[in-house]
Automatic annotation (TrEMBL):
Signal peptide: none
A Pfam short name: HTH_18
Keyword Transferase: no
Domain HTH araC/xylS-type per the UniProt entry, residue ranges: 10-108
Keyword annotations from UniProtKB, A to Z: DNA-binding, Transcription, Transcription regulation
Identification of the protein by name: AraC-like DNA-binding protein
SUPFAM superfamilies recorded: Homeodomain-like (SSF46689)
Superkingdom: Bacteria
Length: 111
């Protein structure tokens, strides 16, 4: 994780990192920051460089990649651990963010 001088954004990112499985909403993240939804969205993007929900999705895929490659967890187990209710939704998000499917990633990681 990177250091943030912006304390509210740091607290929000720490919460995302601690609970990637949580059904986060922009409203919930804004509450953690103590801000309105619109103010939070603008400040997060300005501070971090991307929208909060895009950051969360990317973080979830980083966590998922680690669990698939380094811990040997099956996709069906990883999906709910990073906030997805179905393997299909997880697979689509993984492919969109990572550029390949979770199965392709598993095969490549296995070497």
């Amino acid at each position: 994780m990177f250091a943030l001088a912006d304390k509210p954004m740091h607290v929000v990112i720490a919460a995302m990192h601690a609970q990637p499985e949580r059904k986060w909403t922009l409203e919930a993240l804004a509450r953690i920051a103590g801000m309105s939804r619109s103010s939070f969205a603008v400040r997060f993007k300005r501070t971090v460089g991307e929208p909060a929900m895009d950051y969360l999705t990317r973080w979830r895929m980083i966590v998922a990649s680690d669990r698939l490659a380094n811990r040997g967890m099956p996709i069906a187990v990883v999906a709910p651990l990073v906030g997805y209710e179905s393997e299909g939704a997880f697979g689509a998000a993984f492919k969109r963010v990572m550029g390949y499917s979770p199965k392709q990633f598993e095969r490549a990681a296995a070497g």
